[in-house]
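User: Predict the full complex structure for these chains.
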Amino acid sequence: NSKGQGGSEKAPGFLAAPEDAASELGALLQLPKEGGQGHAFVPHLLEVLAERILRGLDGGAPWLQPDSRAIRYMKRLYRMSATKEGFPRAHRSPLYNTVRLFSPCRECEPRRRDLGEGDVHSVDLRFNLERVTALEHLLKSVLLYSFDTAVPISSSITCICHLSLKEHDFSSQVCPNISHSLAFSLHFDVRKRKWVEIDVTSFLQPLIAMNRRNTHMVLNFTCVMGDPQQSTKLDNPVNVALVPPSLLLYLNDTSEDAYHWGNSLRHGRKSPARARPRSGPLVHPTKGDKGKRNSQGKRASR
Amino acid sequence: QRRNESPKAAPATPPHDLSEYFKQFAFPQNECELHDFRLSFSQLRWDRWIIAPHRYSPRFCRGDCPRVPGQRYGSPVHTVVQSIISERLDPAVPRPACVPAEYRPLSVLTVEPDGSVAYKEYEDMIATKCTCR
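Assistant: Here is the predicted structure of the two-chain assembly.
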C-alpha cells in the first residue's frame, strides 16, 4: 500500500476494485469470484479496463475518443517500437518504455485571432497531463504539428513561432502569470512530411518535475512560402492553417509492471531461485586459486 | 533368479509387467511444458481501447512434473524434497507444480479515459520457459 498513495502518486497496480466492479471485472476476465484478493494489484493495463468499467457502472463521464490523427501517429510509433508479435525493439534513443500523446483540451478550444494574411496567428493550447504518473520520468517532450489537407501543397513552408508557457502561480498575487517563452522556426516540405516535431523537453522539464499536470501555452506564429534563406523578404506570406499541435511525452516508467531495458538480460538470465550445478568448489572470481583455475580453465577448453 | 528358484516357482513375470515397472521412471506422458494460447483482444471486447497488438499469445505451462525434475527444468533441490514429502510422508503437501520460469515483455497501445493515447511496455507478459516448483 505504501506505493498506492492516491492521486497521481498511484502506483500502476491498484488495490482491489470495489466488489461490484471487481465481480464485473472478474466476470469479463472469467476470474474466480471468490478470489477477491485475486483482483488486488492487477497491472496498469487492467487498471485502465477497471476504470472503464467503473465509469460505465457509475455513469461517470464517458471516455473521450482520441483524435484520429493522434491514433495514426501512435500506430506508426508502435510499428517502429515493437515487432509484429508485440515484443519491444531495442536500439532506440531515448530508451523509453512509455509514450503518451495528448491532444489540446477540447473544452478550451484553442482561441485563434483571425488575422489577415501573413500576420501573426495566435493559438491558446491547454494540455491536461493527469495521466502521467509520479513514477513516469520525462525523457523527451515534443510538440507535434500536422497540417490541414487544405494547405496548398507547395515546395516548402517556413514558420517563425513563439511559444510561451503560462503558469497560473496562485501563490504570488503580484504576478499571477509567470511565463517562459521559446522561439523557434519550422521549415518543412509539406509534401514529404505529415508531421513536424519540435523538441520542447527543456521547456517542459521543470513543469513535469514539479508534478504540474495542467499546462497552458500560447503559440504565436507566422508562416511564409519557401525558404527565407533564399527569398530575402517575406514577400509571400501564407495563411497556413496549422492544426493545434499535440504534445508527445517520452517517459521512463519506473514502476514494477513496466518493462525496464536494463532487465533485457533477465530474459536470458535464469530465474533467481534456479540453482546452477557447481562444477567444482566455489572459486572466488578474483581471489580464486590460480592452479585450480588453470586446470579448470584447461579442462573447460578441452 | 530363475536358476536359483526351484522349478516349482511361479513362472517369471510376463514381459508387459516390466513396462509397468519401468513406467514409474519414464517422463510423465503429459509432462510439464509450454503451451500456446492465442488471444485476440476483440474476444475480451477490449479492442476498443487496446489498439495494438491485435493478437497476443501469453502462452502458459501445463503438465505433470517428474518425480526427479533435475536438469531438465532447472528446479532447485527443494523441488525433489517436496516431491518425496508429498509422496511418502504427507499427501497434504502439494506435488511440485508446472509454472513459468521466464517471461518476455509486451508492447501495448491503449486509449486512455481522457482521450490521450499511450504506448506502454509491460514486463512479464509472455511465458517463454516452464519449470517445476
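The longest strand of chain A covers residues 157-168.
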